[in-house]
Amino acid sequence: MTEPQVYVVEDDEAVRDSLQLLLKTEGYKVASFPEATSFLEAWSPDMNGCIVLDIRMPGMSGMELQKELVSRGSELPIIFVTGHGDVPLAVEAMQLGAVDFVQKPYRDQELLEKIRKAMELDAQRQDLRVEKQEIQRRMDTLTPREREIMEMMIDGNANKVIAIDLNISQRTVEIHRSRVMQKMGTHSLAQLVRMVMLVRNSA
Amino acid sequence: MSLNNGEMPAQTSAWQEQILLVDDNPQNLKVLYETLDGRGYKLLVADHGEKALNIAQKSHPDLILLDIMMPEMDGYEVCERLKANPATREISVIFLSALEDTDSKVRAFDAGGVDYIAKPFQIREVIARVETHLTIQRLKKELQERNRALQIDKERILNAMGEGIYGLDAQGHILFANPAAQRISGYTEQDLVGQDFVSLHFASAEPELRESLQDAVASGQWLRLPQVLMSQPGEAQVPVDLSVSPTQGDEGHEGAVVVFRDIREDLERQAELEQARRKLEEQKSQLAQFSRLSTMGEMAAGIAHELNQPLTAVSNYAQVAGRLVNAESLDRETMAETLQKIERQAHRASEVLRRIRSFIRKHASGKEQVSVATLLQETQLLAELDAAYPTDMVKLKVAPDLPPVCVDPVAIQQVALNLIRNGLEAQADLPMDEQFLCLEADLANDQFVEVRVIDRGPGLSQEVAQHLFSPFVTTKAHGMGIGLSLCYSIMQSQGGQIGHRPNPEGGSIFFFTLPVSQPSEA
After folding, report:
1. Number of A:B CB contacts under 8 A?
2. Residue A106 counted as domain residue
């Protein structure tokens, strides 16, 4: 995982330079790009932070970059910077999953506030990603039999039913069950269900 | 031998020439009959004058062989009475007589005879003379028939014509008037015939007009008068196109034919057309206004973007400066740098505003002497504002030492901007680094500078190229097809031309010409 950064994609040199300077004085790590294609070249799946993206640029536009990133599975939050009269474009961008947009020239603090929220959101998403990866890692340690019994547990089957279904003794079921709970690092069935669902939903 | 009905039409396929033989002496009659019988003639006979007149009246023979010496009514009298009757006047009469004296012969000719055969006659002489006169008679009839057909044709043509026609004598009196002439003039034929044409119809006209008409009629000159007013009965007048053509007879100038056409409907249609044309002009100028506004509207978005960039940068730098000031230790170097950057962006914004001001200031000007290079450089800047991204997409190439042109610079910029916008749209599918247009200008001849907008788009189909400058022709999905038609109007008002030709390297070349400012205008 890389350190969270604000990625500024902006064709106007003065705007890019001033924004980079401003964000740096705010304490962010900043990487800036004069066009969409140079950002795409630098992109990697483990980037963290957010993108501040000018919607109108020559060559590949901000919207086109957004679509390309979505198709590559990027989850980086995007804040679109729009000009006068670009609200319809911004709405379309929001529908495609952009987190926010800001109209140029933006008010004092307006963009900074949006960037702060986007960074927070990405951090949360990052935490969630970490949690999911941990759950997945734990699930991967289960034996096939344990996994089978866990599936039946979260479907709400009692030990007795599981034992009959699998043609094993209730005692054996109880042993498997406690090993599942141990490996998954929880004591509550409710917690186990939440964990499995979390991984399944994002699969 | 049967008697034909005299009213029968002369020309039938079974036509036989009829000869009436008249003699009071049955023996003579018999000899004559036998002489001419069997030669293809239909022979009629009469043994006294009264009977001869009856048969002639009824049967219209072609020829009568008439004995002079008859009791009661002699041959002279019969002939005179035939000649006095219009129905029988045309029948040729050959006298037969034993009277040998010259007086008798002269009298026979005086009475209307065409020939004289002395008795006792030779059979061959009778046949020869009969043949000769029948031939003459036949030709005469054919001639009459043809004359009649010609007369009918002439009347039919005169009647059918929509144009009014007067025949005038050399003094300018009306000899005849066709039905259209009566309809247009408002007079009946009786009212017209014998009247003086000029005083009847042009009594209240300008003296010059009257004189030229009188001259034309009197001297046999051709005269054409488009749209003159002809008096009708009362106060009314009718507008006509009129021509006077002299008629020539054997003895030279005989009179004139006047042909005139009622042009009231034409004038009405013309007025309607004129009204429609004015309306169209009005709408076009409204559209021109609209297009100008919409260009301004499109430019507004571009201008806003242009202004937003430096303003955004200024705002960012100012925030940075604020933070630098509030920091525990002031970083003077960064502060100075940031303030300089703010100043630079402020200048950039004011430059954008200066360009807009100069555009607006010139917006309501008339024709003036302008430099083509300056005009096109400004157009290039405007095009870049217009296109929202200031990039290097219009490549300008102006020939050195071009003379100044005399145009309304705003109008010409509208045309050039329109062509540039079309060109950029036409090559929107090209790779980004190829999406530039060439804007070129050079001297076409000593009167015009030619400006070309050259794109590398897909070009135009021949069909579209043909109707390029008509309204509502468009290749754009959302185009109204008004732009080029407006450009055409503008170029006309500027005394230049606009056109299109294919770009040999692919794409289109749109060109327009600007009139070179003449020294007197300088």
Report:
1. 72
2. yes
For residue A19, the chain B residue with the least C-alpha distance is B316
Which domains does chain B carry?
18-155 (3.40.50.2300), 161-262 (3.30.450.20), 269-363 (1.10.287), 365-522 (3.30.565.10)
Which of A5-9, A58-62, B105-109 has the highest average model confidence (pLDDT)?
Answer: A5-9
Grouping H, G, I as helix, E, B as strand and the rest as coil, residue A97 is: coil
β-partners of residue B94 are: B65, B115
Measured in angstroms, the CA of A24 and the nearest CA of chain B are apart by 9
Instruction: Name the residue facing A84 among B308, B316, B344 (closest C-beta).
Output: B308
Where do we find the tokens 């406690």?
A178
**pLDDT tens readout for residues A88-125:** 778 888 877 778 888 887 776 888 999 999 999 998 88
Q: What is the dihedral of CA B314, B319, B320, B326, to 10 degrees?
A: 150
Contact of A82 with A102, CB cutoff 8 Å: yes
What φ, ψ does residue A84 adopt, rounded to 5°?
Answer: -60, 130
Asked whether the beta carbons of residue A58 and residue B391 sit closer than 8 angstroms, the reply is: yes
Distance between CA atoms of residues A50 and A9, nearest Å: 11
Distance from CA of B422 to the nearest CA of A (A): 18
Which CA distances in Å does B293 have to A1, B290, B300, B360, B361? 54, 5, 10, 12, 15
Write out the residue range of the structural domain in which residue A86 sits: 5-127
Q: Do A22 and B317 touch (CB under 8 A)?
A: yes
Give me the residue from A25, A85, A105 closest to B323, CB to CB.
Answer: A25
A105:B312 CB<8 A? yes
- Sequence-distant (6+) residues with CB within 8 A of B41 are B16, B17, B18, B19, B130
Which has more pLDDT, B167 or A88?
B167
Nearest Cβ partner for B310 among A14, A56, A108? A14
Q: How many domains does chain A have?
A: 2
**What is the C-alpha separation between A96 and A112, in angstroms, rounded?**
22
Task: Specify the pLDDT at position B287.
Answer: 62
